[in-house]
Specification:
Length: about 230
């Protein structure tokens, strides 16, 4: 089940994200390592996409932020075509500057995006009050939908999040799912992950400190095939 907290104020407006992506203050996307976070999630997602590496179709990254997942997907699927979509005009302008040579970037809403083979939505759905309807609309636009979200995030949620997800959230769509930990994509990141989690978990009980279970970096990836969207109608 989805833990629906959508009755709280949702700060995730276009204006909010335009400011986060374009500003240079301490709360900006770049100041808070947003680009690194996108890469961290993308390296784990791309290992779990169920297409052959010679895939020739189109992959759409919905909620692409500053586009940093696209080169990672491109490296795995060099023959694919890529589209990045984001609500923020500021983000898309930066995407075009950074990666316009390998992908098409657009500011579109969910009903205006082109129909494609695969849609990947990484750490976006938890921001949306109308998440179930949003999934329904995305499934009309693709053959395969991959959704990555924080796994069993507990209240109080991150200030930008309005939903929490578990293994059974999309059972009604016969979704495949996998829970995993985003440890990092460099040796130092991975080493620090093992030290902070497994090693420190050995001693945490002695100090009556709760075991670390992954926080926002503990993710669940849902894979939903579009023909199963008929159950929503």
């Amino acid at each position: 089940m989805i833990q629906d907290l959508s009755n709280i104020d949702n700060i995730n407006s276009k204006e909010y994200w335009d400011d986060r992506f374009s500003s240079t203050n301490g709360k900006s996307w770049r100041a808070n390592s947003g680009e690194n976070q996108t890469k961290l999630f993308a390296y784990e997602i791309v290992k779990r996409l169920k297409m052959d590496t010679d895939f020739h179709g189109t992959i759409l990254d919905f909620g692409c932020a500053l586009g940093d997942a696209i080169p990672i997907y491109k490296e795995r699927y060099p023959n694919a075509q890529f589209i990045g979509i984001d609500i923020s005009t500021s983000a898309i302008n930066i995407c075009n500057q950074k990666f316009g040579n390998i992908a098409t970037f657009l500011t579109e809403d969910v009903d205006s995006i082109p129909s494609v083979d695969v849609i990947v939505m990484s750490n976006v759905l938890e921001h949306l009050s109308d998440d179930k309807d949003f999934v329904k609309r995305l499934l009309r636009k693709c053959k395969d939908l991959y959704i990555a979200v924080p796994y069993e995030e507990k209240a109080p949620l991150h200030e930008e999040h309005v939903n929490s997800y578990n293994l059974h959230t999309f059972d009604y769509l016969n979704a495949e799912k996998e829970v995993y930990l985003c440890r990092g994509y460099t040796f130092s990141q991975i080493l620090k992950s093992y030290i902070y989690i497994e090693l420190k978990n050995i001693i945490r009980p002695f100090f009556k400190v709760p075991l670390y279970k992954g926080g926002l970096n503990r993710q669940i990836l849902f894979h939903i095939k579009s023909q199963e969207a008929s159950v929503l109608h």
